[in-house]
Amino acid sequence: MPLADYQTLVDKLVRDETGKVTTTDRDEAIARAVARYSQDRPREKTEDVVSPGGNYFDLPAGWQVDFSSLRSVEYPVGNIPLSLIAPERLGFYRTPTALQIMFADAIPAAANVRFNYTIRHQVDGSADTIRSDDREPVCAYAAAILLDQLASLFAGDNNPTIQADNVDHNSKGREYAARAATLRKRYFDTLGIDPKRQVAAGVVVNLDFPDSQGNDRLLHPKRHR
After folding, report:
1. Each residue's pLDDT tens digit in the chain (225 positions)?
2. Which residues pair with 207 in a beta bridge?
3. Using an 8 Å Cβ cutoff, are 37 and 131 in contact?
């Protein structure tokens, strides 16, 4: 579904008789809804990277800083069953200039390693990566953002010319807020997610590798329970 279809559906869901919602407001709301969907149901990308040899890999080319997270790392590639590296044998290592993926066991030079990781969704004039069943809920979330803005606008307008207008403004504010809540609930219910859940993006961890004699390292001791 192209971006224009998202725009049309959001307009229908908002039904802004006041004309206060601009096309820029609408497009920003769609972008925010896509960003939220990317957190709740991110895309997965698979990329093969040739090992430089050793324990450190640069991030895959498609990695999105401050968003991507590793789902799995396969090495050797192509085994049946899959040879997935255990999460505790992987971590991130930050140098003064870059973030790298660190392996507990050295990978031979020129070997292929398969990374599966998350990336954001994309909706524009040429691409739409959102699952077809989830497109309407994403539009509902975008419409909820706009209706919240309208509710806030009318709730904050305390200078009507006559008292009857004040009643009308308060009523409109409550109506917009209720519709926003209903549409947001549609998004969460359809995706089957907890709206209070917090989603972390990329995570940097310290690996608790022992030294050559099996003892704790000085700079990264294990946490003893």
Report:
1. 889 999 999 999 999 988 999 999 999 999 999 999 999 999 999 999 999 999 999 999 999 999 999 999 999 999 999 999 999 999 999 999 999 999 999 999 999 999 999 999 999 988 999 999 999 999 999 999 999 999 999 886 555 554 545 556 678 889 999 999 999 999 999 999 887 765 544 444 444 544 444 444 444 444 444
2. none
3. no
Q: Residues near 139 by Cβ (< 8 Å), separated by ≥ 6?
A: 6, 9, 10, 13, 30, 33
Q: What is the rounded distance in angstroms from the CA atom of residue 108 to the CA atom of residue 172?
A: 66
8 A C-beta contact, residue 114 and residue 73:
yes
> Is the pTM value of this prediction over 0.85?
no
Residue type, 63: W
- Overall residue count recorded for the chain in this entry: 225
Give the C-alpha distances (Å, rounded to integers) separating 90 from 5, 37, 83, 85, 161.
42, 27, 14, 8, 66
Q: Which two tokens stand for residue 114?
A: 């398969």
Contacts of 23 (CB under 8 A, 6+ apart): 7
CA 194, 198, 204, 206: dihedral to nearest 10 degrees?
-80
**Neighbour-count burial of 16, counting CB atoms closer than 10 A to its CB (0-12 exposed, 13-18 middle, 19+ buried):** middle
81-107 exposure pattern, b = at least 16 Cβ within 10 A, e = fewer: eeeebeeeebbbbeeeeeeebbbeeeb
